[in-house]
Design brief:
The complex is a heterodimer of chains A (434) and B (460).
Chain A lengths: L4 H53 L4 E10 L2 H4 L7 H6 L2 H12 L6 H8 L6 H11 L7 E7 L2 H7 L16 H12 L3 E5 L2 H4 L12 H32 L4 H13 L4 H15 L7 H25 L3 H9 L4 H29 L3 H5 L20 H10 L3 H32 L4
Antiparallel strand pairs in A: 1-2, 1-3
Chain B lengths: L1 H27 L11 H37 L3 H4 L3 H17 L8 H39 L6 H41 L2 H6 L3 E2 L14 E2 L2 H32 L2 H16 L2 H22 L9 H25 L3 H9 L4 H30 L2 H6 L17 H9 L8 H35 L1
Helix pairs in contact in B: 1-2, 1-5, 2-5, 2-6, 4-5, 6-16, 8-11, 8-13, 9-11, 10-11, 11-13, 12-13, 13-16, 15-16
The chains are: A mainly alpha (434), B mainly alpha (460).
């Protein structure tokens, strides 16, 4: 009987179980690894995204300048010596700047060559020279070493984004300009300085003159409209739905409606703005007023939902106590419940505003995608906003706009981080356990 | 500017009304507040609200109707030939007149008729502003005076004020409904105009999409074709790719965070993953166009494949990354809602953790997980900026993720950014696509929210 295979199998059974257990444990470990690696992938992708943006964008905070000895010639700026700002502002600074550049390169004589030479510099240098004179008229008649702003292509060359080994035809800087540039570089006359233009001007076709101030102001105006519109309405709606509304069909519909509205694609709100605000009411295109209204409708559900959960967090004992000493329901809410729920509502509002700040698609629909070179002065002026500016620059072919796009993204992310931090701090500060 | 002054004046009037009401109430009882039914401040508020409401109604009426009425008067004073122009040309003419009026008179090339119209426009505008200011202040003053006569010792002003505030609250909560109605009506109206030009069946089942219609009658070769099937297919392809990326990563990280991780690890990692949801979509679009697109193209060509520079894969992968936090945080909530007793039961039977998850928790949480995935799908379908920046414009009917496809949102943006002629089938097509988008996402959301709600109730 001992040779019976069944008996032998029975004898080996414990080993089989062990094998199965170790297999199950291996599966356990694998499963755990899948989970961990999923998190790893998500975090890694986030890191790659941020590093790519920062890596392409950091260089935009610097701008190449070239030192030229500018002769602030009295004869051509202010021959009468009036020192009158009106006269000073009208002088031919382009001529002065060009004269000084020619002076630095006496060997360049042909008209075409000289034109190429001027192309090393930004088209804006006459304003730069003019502003120096207007700031300090006493420099008239002297020769000063001025750091003139370089053209975008030269800026790219300095930052190493133009490959010198390419054949001349494929390069944005030709051989002649390269020789001039190298000469300037040898003389220590090329320097990267902090790019103030980027923070003080609006959009421009020339990368070295383009800045984000117009877009930042546009975003601020738009968000202001959104906030003024949506905060009172959101709070009022949340208070009504949470504190006063009877439970009937109507309030059910409103509730379902708000939940669904929160999930409607943002571009649909843009279509609504186009059809209703622009075509039906005839409000101005590209204006922060309309942008703010569209974003307001878009963020309203977020703010109502956040407001309701803030109100829900206030314990009923507060209400009962107020009602118990004779306050009306409205007094209970306005004097006791609302102040206690306010930090939560503000947190929700800030998060809603951050969402509105990053939104692009609906604004494209209402024409905020226009090319606008002025900083907007009011809510009915044509304006653009930071994300749309990023979108516009991302489309531009010049390498100099690539780094500016990334830099604008960094500014946008900085604003978003600041807003979210404010929300977190607010929540931490006023968080209460009842 | 004038509006700002008007609003400040109105606020000043309101403040005055508040004081008047309060003082009046106190003076009716000779300073003895106990004799009043309501607190003096309620009497003040009563008068102030009656001063403010009529005035605000007039301000809004002006905002809405001013432009239309002025334009109407201007158009009626145009010459007969000018009135016969097409609406868009009349609009252009009016714009020109407004510009002349705004910039002041300059340049000699302007003809007299336009100058005269510009003058008329400025005078109309001035009259309108003056009339607005007078009417608003008058309305405020009348409201104030009328409300003031009501005040008496037994006047129940608190009840009145509370009723008015309640009315405001109700109106504010109705705005959400109004928004939905506005969306539905505007989409339906414009889409209906589109379907009078292009039959619904062609739109839904046609496989040719080239929305360039002829500008002139004699133009050749651009009759326009509005078969949206390639667009729907492209949207589905990109959404599918996004889900292939987002669902496994999102779900596995949710499972890890809910079942395995220590509270400390979870406290650090969960906010980091959720940063992905806070990054503006335009940033993802730039990332897709600048980094992911060229990278995929490089790899593909390394393997000898032809990859379009705006491939569906690049847009889909980046969209999937964006959606990871939606899937993970929703699934995380759902998994956490599974009762501990189910886990304990499985452990007591000797199951390992992963066996418990796979055979007990996931089946129990499945409706909720499906709901969260549906929400993520609706998010992906409606996502605009990533596809606008990284997907193509050409409506190719293909299932190859390496070729360029277009989506509903891309087409809406392309059709509506730029020229604005509001009676061409081209711009109206955008609203028809918008309607499809709205209906599809709405259905997905309703289904998802119902499923999740049902699921929650099951374990509550």
């Amino acid at each position: 009987m001992t040779d019976d295979p069944a008996t032998i199998l029975t004898a080996y059974k414990p080993d089989l179980t062990k094998a199965r257990i170790s297999k199950r444990y291996a599966a356990e470990k694998r499963f755990r690894m899948y989970g961990l690696s999923a998190i790893g992938v998500a975090v890694l992708v986030l890191a790659i995204l941020l590093i790519t943006i920062a890596g392409t964008g950091y260089s935009a905070f610097q701008q190449t300048h070239i030192a030229i000895d500018v002769n602030f010639d009295k004869e051509s700026i202010d021959p009468q010596g009036t020192n009158d700002p009106g006269v000073l502002a009208e002088a031919n600074y382009r001529g002065i700047a060009r004269q000084s550049i020619r002076h630095a390169f006496p060997e360049v004589t042909g008209r075409r060559d000289q034109r190429n030479l001027f192309r090393l510099f930004s088209g804006e240098i006459d304003f730069q020279v003019r502003n120096m004179v207007l700031d300090d008229p006493s420099i008239i008649g002297t020769t000063q070493r001025v750091w003139l702003k370089a053209a975008a292509d030269i800026d790219m060359l300095t930052k190493g984004f133009i490959d010198r080994s390419l054949p001349e035809g494929d390069r944005r800087v030709n051989d002649q300009s390269l020789t001039w540039y190298d000469k300037l570089d040898r003389d220590d006359r090329v320097k990267k300085r902090f790019n103030t233009t980027f923070f003080t001007t609006a959009d421009s076709r020339e990368p070295e003159q383009a800045g984000i101030l117009g877009a930042v102001v546009g975003s601020a105006l738009t968000l202001l409209v959104t906030l003024v519109l949506v905060f009172p309405i959101g709070v009022a709606a949340a208070v009504y739905l949470e504190e006063f509304a009877p439970h009937n069909k109507w309030t059910d519909i409103i509730e379902v409606n708000i939940n669904n509205l929160a999930a409607v694609p943002s571009i649909v709100f843009g279509l609504l703005g186009l059809a209703v605000f622009l075509n039906f009411f005839g409000l101005p295109r590209s204006a922060p007023l309309v942008g703010g209204m569209v974003l307001g409708l878009m963020t309203l559900p977020t703010i109502i939902i956040a407001g309701r959960s803030a109100l829900k967090a206030v314990p009923p004992s507060i209400r009962e106590a107020a009602l118990g000493i004779g306050a009306s329901r409205m007094q209970t809410v306005t004097h006791h419940v609302l102040p206690l729920a306010m930090p939560g509502m503000l947190t929700g509002t800030i998060i809603g505003m951050a969402q509105a700040l990053g939104e692009t698609a609906p604004l494209l629909m209402i024409g905020m995608v226009a090319f606008i070179v002025d900083v907007p002065g009011g809510i009915t002026d044509a304006a653009t906003v930071l994300p749309v500016q990023i979108f516009l620059w991302a489309d531009a072919p010049e390498r100099a706009f690539v780094e500016r796009t990334s830099a604008a993204i960094m500014v946008l992310l900085a604003f978003l981080i600041a807003m979210n931090l404010a929300a977190i701090l607010l929540r931490k500060k006023f968080e209460r356990r009842w | 500017m004038n509006t700002a002054i008007l609003i400040i004046a109105l606020l000043a009037l309101t403040a005055f009304a508040y004081r008047t009401g309060k003082n009046r109430a106190l003076s009716t009882v000779k300073g003895d507040g106990h004799l009043l039914h309501s607190l003096p401040s309620y009497h003040g508020m009563y008068v102030a609200l009656w001063c403010l409401f009529p005035a605000i109604v007039i301000v809004f009426a002006w905002l809405i109707f001013e432009t239309t009425i002025i334009n109407g008067i201007l158009v009626s004073s145009l010459t007969v030939e000018q009135q016969a122009l097409s609406p868009s040309q009349v609009e252009l003419l009016l714009n020109e007149i407004r510009n002349i009026a705004g910039a002041g008179v300059q340049g000699g090339q302007l003809d007299d008729a336009k100058l005269r119209l510009a003058e008329q426009y400025s005078s109309l505008k001035n009259t309108s502003t003056a009339a607005q200011i007078v009417l608003v202040i008058a309305a405020g003053a009348v409201g104030l005076a009328l409300a003031r006569t009501h005040i008496a010792a037994r006047f129940r002003s608190r009840h009145r004020v509370e009723k008015m505030v309640m009315a405001v609250l109700v109106i504010c909560s109705a705005i959400a409904i109004l928004t939905t109605i506005g969306i539905v009506l505007s989409l339906l109206f414009e889409a209906w105009r589109f379907f009078t030009k292009v039959p619904l069946t062609e739109f839904l089942f046609g496989i040719q999409w080239s929305p360039q219609t002829a500008l002139r009658a004699d133009q050749v070769g651009s009759t326009g074709a509005f078969g949206a099937v390639p667009i729907f297919a492209g949207t589905m392809l990109i959404t599918l790719i996004a889900m292939i990326v987002a669902v496994p990563i999102g779900l596995m990280s949710a499972i890890y965070m809910a079942e395995y991780s220590t509270p400390k690890f979870r406290g650090i990692v969960k906010p980091i993953v959720e940063i992905l949801a806070g990054i503006p979509t335009v940033v993802y679009g730039f990332f897709a166009a600048l980094t992911v697109g060229p990278a995929i193209r490089g790899w593909g060509e390394g393997l000898g494949l032809t990859v379009a520079s705006e491939s569906a894969l690049a847009a889909g992968v980046v969209m999937g990354i964006m959606i990871i936090p939606f899937v993970s945080s929703l699934s995380d909530d759902v998994i956490n809602a599974v009762p501990q007793s189910l886990r304990d039961g499985a452990y007591a039977m000797g199951a390992t953790k992963s066996e418990t998850i796979r055979q007990v928790i996931i089946p129990a949480a499945l409706p909720g997980i499906v709901g969260s995935i549906l929400l993520a799908v609706s998010r992906a379908i409606g996502e605009t900026m990533i596809v606008v920046m990284a997907a193509g414009l050409a409506a190719n009917l293909t299932a190859n993720p390496l070729s360029a496809v277009t989506t509903v949102t891309v087409q809406i943006v392309t059709l509506l950014v730029g020229d604005q002629e509001f009676d061409s089938a081209k711009t109206l097509a955008a609203f028809a696509l918008g309607l499809v988008l709205f209906v599809v996402t709405l259905c997905l959301n309703v289904i998802a929210l119902t499923v999740v709600k049902k699921y929650r109730e099951k374990y509550d």
